[in-house]
Amino acid sequence: MVTLAAATELDRPGVAGNGAAFWFFTRASIRLCAAIAAPEHEASAATLQEHLARIADPRLQRAFAAALDIKLEKKKRPARCHPQPIDLWKGLRR
Question: Among candidates 75, 77, 55, 73, which has minimal Cα distance to 64?
C-alpha cells in the first residue's frame, strides 16, 4: 500500500511539470508488486528482470536481486576494437 501511495503521489498532475496525469509509476509499481507476490507466474520472472535492467547502479541491482532471490542475467560486454590510428593531416596533403 505504501508503494502504491508513493507511486500515485509521483504520478499526480503537476509533479511532472506539464499538468497532465502521468501513470508510469503506478503501472510499474502494480506490475512489480504482482510479480513479487506471485513469483511462480510465468510473466513474473520477465517483469523482475525488466525492473532490474532499469536500475542503473550495479550495487542496487545486486541488492534488489538478493532481496528477492533473483538470479542476475549477465550482460555481454561489447568487444573492444583497436581502430587504426587516424591521420589528421591526410585530407590536407595534395
Answer: 55
Place of cell 502494480: 30
User: What are the structural domain ranges in the chain?
Assistant: 2-73
Nearest to 43 by CA among 35, 54, 51: 35
Is the pLDDT at 20 greater than 70? The verdict is no
- For residue 86, is pLDDT > 80? no
Q: How many CB atoms lie within 10 A of CB 9?
A: 11
Residue ranges of E strands in 1-94: none
Helix 42-54 and helix 58-68, axial crossing angle in degrees, nearest 10: 160
Q: What is the pTM of this model?
A: 0.61
CA atoms within 13 A on the CB side of 59: 0
